[in-house]
Specification:
It is globular, with a radius of gyration of 17 Å. The protein has six helices and eight strands; from the N terminus they run αβββαβαβαβαβαβ. By secondary structure, it is α/β, with parallel strands linked by helices. The longest helix is centred in the middle third of the chain and has 10 residues, at 105-114. InterPro entries: LRR_dom_sf.
């Protein structure tokens, strides 16, 4: 693990990171089982691979030039991992799709309040808005999406497959620069709320079909 972290940290101009975090049964848990790196001379590097959970995300502060981070859907995040990303204040693109245990409402709120330059945010399938033990926020995700709605730079947002309610989803009408909103598979949202959302976001493509 130390060698893996050192190799990533050595990429001083790292601006893009795509990574799966967790233990893969067929791989040595201390190694990357697959790595993809593509430096092209302008500080843009892509890496993807399996990293062992061991608080790696909590060491994310040294990625202080990162613009794009994709935690791949096959990752197995631990509780607190997503919240640790709030130190990455330079991000403009973040994908936490299927973050589940590692991405709760509190983490999403912390990210929205800290990583304020986000233009692209994918929080699909994170079970946000669901009642959970230790969740300081009410179920339904109102506080969560109210925080996301403060990200006025957002042009792309994916909230599919969460437990948001009508009241929560309608917080997003404040996103005046949004161009694409994916909001299908929100089983607690009524057709009327979808209609109100679409009417308010005339400047955006609101995708509500599965």
């Amino acid at each position: 693990m130390a060698a893996v972290l050192a190799s990533i940290a050595a990429c001083g101009g790292l601006t893009t990171l795509h990574v799966a975090i967790g233990a893969e049964a067929e791989a040595d848990a201390n190694c990357l089982s697959r790595v993809r790196a593509d430096p092209n001379g302008n500080g843009r590097v892509r890496q993807a691979g399996w990293l062992r959970q061991a608080g790696w995300l909590r060491q994310a502060g040294w990625l202080n030039r990162l613009k794009e981070l994709c935690i791949l859907p096959e990752s197995r995040l631990a509780k607190g991992d997503a919240a640790a990303l709030s130190t990455l204040t330079t991000l403009t693109r973040l994908s936490l799709a299927c973050g589940r245990q590692g991405a709760d409402d509190a983490a999403a709120i912390a990210l929205a309040r800290s990583v304020t330059e986000l233009r692209h945010l994918d929080i699909a399938g994170c079970y946000l808005g669901m009642p959970r033990a230790g969740n300081a926020y009410e179920s339904g995700g109102v506080a969560c999406l109210a925080a996301v709605a403060q990200l006025q730079q957002l042009t792309y947002l994916d909230v599919r497959g969460n437990a948001f309610t009508d009241e929560a989803l309608l917080q997003l009408t404040a996103l005046t620069r949004l161009r694409v909103l994916k909001a299908s598979n929100l089983h607690n949202v009524s057709p009327g709320a979808y209609s109100r959302l679409e009417a308010a976001l005339l400047h955006a493509r609101v995708l509500v079909e599965s």
